[in-house]
Each structure stands twice: as C-alpha cells, then as structure tokens.
Amino acid sequence: MTEQVSTMRVTIDDVAQTxxxxxxxxxxxxxxxxNVREVTRQRVLQAIAALKxxxxxxxxxxxxxxxxxxxxxxxxRSPSYIMEVQGGVLEACEARHYSMMAQPxxxxxxxxxxxxxxxxxxxxxxxxxxxxxITDHAALLKSLRKSGIPFASISPRHPEKCVGVILxxxxxxxxxxTHLVSLGHxxxxxxxxxxxxxxxxxxLAGYRDGLERAGLKENPAYMIxxxxxxxxxxxxxxxxxxxxxxxxxxxxxxxxxxxxxIWAVSEAGLSVPGDISVCGFDDTAIATQVWPPLTTIHQPxxxxxxxxxxxxxxxxxxxxxxxxxxxxxxxRIRASTGPxx
Length: 341
Prior knowledge:
The protein is α/β, with parallel strands linked by helices and 341 residues long. The chain is elongated and about 80 Å long. α6 (79-95) links the parallel β1 (69-74) and β2. The protein has a six-stranded parallel sheet with strand order 2-1-3-4-5-11, covered by helices on one side. The chain has helices spanning 2-6, 12-19, 23-30, 38-51, 57-64, 79-95, 112-123, 138-147, 169-182, 198-214, 230-241, 255-267, 301-317; strands spanning 69-74, 99-104, 127-130, 151-154, 164-167, 188-191, 223-224, 249-252, 277-279, 296-298, 324-327, 330-332.
C-alpha cells in the first residue's frame, strides 16, 4: 500500500495542503503572478520542491487558455549559432515553466508565410522568437502583427519597431577595423554578409566607419559578397588573393566565412597571420578550434536569446513593459591577426 501511494502523481491539492494555502495561491505562485506575500510564496516553493511537484501542461493550458510554449523559428546554416540560441531560449522558458518548440524553415520559399501560419494553427504557441534572417521578413511580420501573436526578434534590422534584443554590431565592426589599423594594416578587405540580413548591413557599415576613421579610402575590389557560410568565405577569399595588390588583412562578416578564408589562404600556400591577417565576427565555438585561433568579435548569442525570450514572456504574461534590449560587444584578439608582412 505504501509503495502504491508513493508512486501516485503529486497534485496541486497536495502542494496546497503541504504549504497550508489554497490551490489558487499555488497556481499564482506557479504563474509568477503578483499579490502573493513573499513568505507565502517561499512556503509554496518549498512544498513544490519537497513533493517534487510538476504541473501538467494540459491542466495549465485549460486553466489559463495558454499553451505555455514558445516557438523558435530559424533559417540559419550555422549549427553552433542555433545551438546557442536554443540554449538561451530554453533557459528563459524553464524559469517561467514554459516549453520550447524549435522549427527550422526556409525563409526564401514561396510558401514560407503559409508554413508559419499553419504552424501557429496546429501548435498554438503563446509567442514566437524570430532569428535572422526571419526577423526581417516583411511579409511574415505583417502576418504576425495582423494575427496579434506576440513575437520577439533577435538582431532585427529595424529594432525601433520590435521587441527583442540587438548587439552594437556597427560599432563592433568599426572597432575590428581599428584593431587591424593599429597593427599597421592599410589594405583591409571585407567579406560581406547576406545583404538581406541586418547583421550583414550593420557589419558592412561598421567596416566603412572604421576605414573612414583611419583616413583610408574604400576599395570596391576589397569588398566581396558572402553568404554567412564556409563555402562563400572560401570563394570570396580566392578572389581577394587573386588581386594584383592583394589585401594584408581580411575581415569576414562571420566566423564561418573567416574559417573559409583561412582555408583559402593555406590553399594558396600563404600563412595566417604571417602573410595575411584574418578576423571574423560572432566568436562561435569553431573560432578557438582552428589554427591559428581566430580573432573575432564576441557575440553573446546565448544571452541574446535568453534576453529576447524574457522580453517575449514579459509581453505574453503582462509582466511590465517589454522592449528592445541592447547588448555590448567584446573583441577577442587571438593569433590570426598580426602586423602586415
């Protein structure tokens, strides 16, 4: 008999009885609602921990008309970036007893908006986290605003119109150029990111700011389009290395393209940084796994995703005014940059 009782599921009534409160008070504590005295909140939390109570998602949904689920939408080729984003979203969700649904999508597909609308109908998340380049998909944003579903954006191109989080990317890119100039470089090339991606626009603008600040003229031959991928970095670097007056430093708009650049430099029989300095942006895991380790700009992706989710849940739960959070950058100087030959 004792064994049968111990394996029975703990209910909210059990928590209320142990804490000496009503089930309504327990529900308020679980949903982080106000108007609960701190001493009572702590008593309920202690009872939840002692009983190892886990509320049923279905019961919470029926009681509150919410799914207690956040949808994460992404169209990004970098596994390390997506893993960092997922980790940040999950951390924020677990703090509010929410779950996460991650959905890979192709934002260039003709039926993209219809796919998202179908996803919303089938799963009914309480809100969405949008990642680049989905953050800037005009047709999707129009659809979401029309439907009224809350969403938060990571690195949107027009942050003044959104809730979410951004990094000071333009300033960061300019600072990277300043670092290269301080080493003595004057022939500095840039491998651009996706022009439809806010990050690509800001990082190019920052590169130009850095050149202007150093009194260096832009050289169109030193600005090669890329697509935030290893392959596009290799292709762009090959073009730069084939120039009669090749650059002494290459600043790629993300780490994947920078790693592709290092590969192309080695392919050409040259060395990094002896012949050409290479730097990137994002500080993904691969930046310290290659040789030489990559000088790059640290983008706190996990923290950005967590903060964006916090803003979304603040919006969903009505816990104060949600807004656009701006985070700072940090340059990580490693062995891939040095003085020009």
